[in-house]
Amino acid sequence: MIGSLLYLIVSRPDIMFSVFLCARFQAVPKESHLTAIKRIFRCLLGTQSLGIWYPRHSTSFEIIGFSDFYFVGCKVDRKSTS
């Protein structure tokens, strides 16, 4: 599952932090890590129309994005998860 998500982060940078955080615990996974991975997949199902698409022959394209930050959201190292 982590490998599939690592492949997707090229076009979905919004899940990059969560996927890398779960990948850190691949050697000794716990049930909570599986729950987090399943939550990422549910998020992807609900936002299938979002992502970065790189057109081949177009000279210009529009990128629409948002930024969200949450301080002290990471319980592992208590750093900002922006």
TrEMBL record:
Q: Which domain of life is it from?
A: Eukaryota
PANTHER family in UniProt: CYSTEINE-RICH RLK (RECEPTOR-LIKE PROTEIN KINASE) 8, GAG-POL-RELATED RETROTRANSPOSON
| Name of the protein | Putative mitochondrial protein
